[in-house]
Amino acid sequence: MAFLDTLRQWDEAILCVDRQDLKQALKIFLSIKDPNSKISFNIGCLQLVEQKLDAAEKAFDFSICKDEHLAVAFFQRAITFYKKQRFQESVSDFQLALKALRGNQLIDYKALGLRYKLYACEVLHNMALAEAHMGQWERAQKNLVKALEFKTDNKLNILDRAMQSILKQNIFKAVEFPSTVLFRPNKYYVAQLDKKDYLGKAKVVASVIPQDHFSGFAPLQPQCEKGPDTPKEPEVLRALEGEAHIVRYEFLPETSDELAVVPGNIVFVLQKGSDNWASVVFNGRRGLVPYNYLERLEMSLGAKQEQEESPSREPPSRPERKQAVVRCNSSSADAEHKEAQPADMSCIVKVYCTFNVVVRVTSDCTYSMLVEKLSKKLKRSSSSFTLSFTSEANSVMNEDTDMVSVWSRSRNRRLKLWCHIKELQETEMIFVARHSYESSNPEDLTFNKGDTITLISKVNQDWLEGYCEGNTGIFPASFVEQLSINQ
Predict the structure, then answer these.
(1) How far is residue 389's CA from residue 197's CA, in Å, rounded to a whole number?
(2) What does the buried/exposed string (b/e) look like for 218-246 if buried means 16 or more CB atoms within 10 Å of the residue's CB?
(3) Are residues 271 and 349 in the same domain?
(4) Is residue 354 within 8 Å of residue 465, measured between CB atoms?
(5) More exposed terminus of the chain, fewer Cβ within 10 Å: N or C?
(6) Distance of CA 370 to CAs 230, 332, 375, Å?
(7) Where are the alpha helices (DSSP H) in 345-480?
(8) Is the domain of 419 the same as that of 445?
């Protein structure tokens, strides 16, 4: 089906929704062949109103297949599973919706044609409700506590009532999506559906030039003696008249009027419409791009300031990382030889901490020697952490610990210990990612823009070591900025 036909039916169905004729709107939507993600979402919402849960689930499946980043589609499919009492699948979809929010408090879909704001606290609220139906009251309470971190003033009463119900182990009411709020087609495209008569009615006029017997749409005119002062500038040169913007998000066009761009492209905005669409020029091609996908670029900034505002396209030169093996008995003259060829009595100790540490010791290593080496490795005083055999810290080691029994726990000369750092939150240095960083190197730390990163150590002037969401690695210092230092 041609795009214009799809657009015309889409607009006609929305007009039916405005007249509260939901059945006719659903009938029109279902007649559209190969609907896009937004239209499939609209079909699913109207099927929910009709209580056709299986058809609604199928429609939301198709919407998610078309756009796997549409958080509101995951939210609606989770509501569908909840109404079908498939609570585990409902929880999974609420988790996917929360992941698509990428740590933001909300997503406003107005720029995409949907007059709705999806709040993270509402997603967590419904997730807790589904868990409560399965009898998982503790997990439900944790999710409600987490929802309070994303709360807004107008959502506080809902969360308070839900928390009171959870404490009494009572079921509360779900937050549902408005039934008649649907994705609307772009106003700019709808306006082009009406045929326009640019010529009007033709008029025959007589020539005013002597001895000119021509009659028709316009009289013959004398030739201009002089040509134009300056030749007409090509479209590419006139693009410099617009404002330079940098593309922050990838945009894939759905029509021939739209322009495909990817993050990092520099485009020139010629005109910004009231519907949040911008007419831009990129590489000699002109088209429409959502303006909220762009960020204004100040071309007058100096080179030094520009370098401070954004990192170079390539990360700085990678640091040389030496894999040194820590030995407790390295004071002898042949220590370097033993580093390369460990003795038969050596044991590898893997210490689970905020990040993992591996040291190599001998069986005669005492507790004090082990703690001293770990203190240097962790760059912390020996009094700031304790060691234990389990992650729960219920078997803490100390000076009186029988190290012979400790080494007897090893298997194939390998031993696992857990390190519990005291006052960890008081010494953390937190950074926030200004730009996304992704690398194929296994020792690098991959993160997205806006993620928080805890500093572990400073590798050199250009590279830092830290951890984010359970992963540890090195990353360019120019990609982050310090958020706060808790003291």
Answers:
(1) 83
(2) eeeeeeeeeeeeeeeeeeeeebeebbebe
(3) no
(4) no
(5) C
(6) 82, 17, 9
(7) 367-378, 403-408
(8) no
What is the per-residue pLDDT across 362-420, written as a single tens digit (0 to 9) for each? 777 888 888 888 877 776 767 777 888 776 656 778 877 777 777 777 777 787 887 87
Residue 402: how many CB atoms within 10 A of its CB?
10
Residue type, 239: A
pLDDT tops 60 at residue 312: no
Nearest to 444 by CA among 466, 423, 460, 429: 466
Tokens 């929910």 identify what position?
A: 48
Q: How many residues does the chain have?
A: 487
Domain boundary among 138, 167, 196: 167
Beta bridge partners of 467: 454, 472
DSSP-derived secondary structure letter, 59: H
Nearest in space to 72 (alpha carbons), one of 18, 133, 35, 113: 113
State how many domains the chain has: 4
Instruction: Supply the mean pLDDT for the chain.
Output: 78
For residue 270, the domain's CATH number is 2.30.30.40
Residue 174 lies in a domain: no
Burial class from Cβ neighbours inside 10 Å (0-12, 13-18, 19+) for residue 280 reads: buried
Residue where the block lists tokens 């109404």: 83
**Can you say whether the dihedral through the CA atoms of 130, 131, 137, 138 is positive or negative?**
negative
**Which tokens in the block code for residue 356?**
């993992």
211-233 pLDDT, tens digit per residue, is 555 544 454 455 555 555 555 44
Residue written as token pair 């009532």: 161
For residues 380 and 240, membership in a common domain is answered with no
Whether 234 shows a pLDDT value over 70: the answer reads no
Position 44 in a domain: yes
Where in the sequence is the domain holding 391, given as residue range(s)? 335-424
State how far the Cα of 389 lies from the Cα of 416, in Å rounded to an integer: 7
- What is the per-residue pLDDT for 77? 95
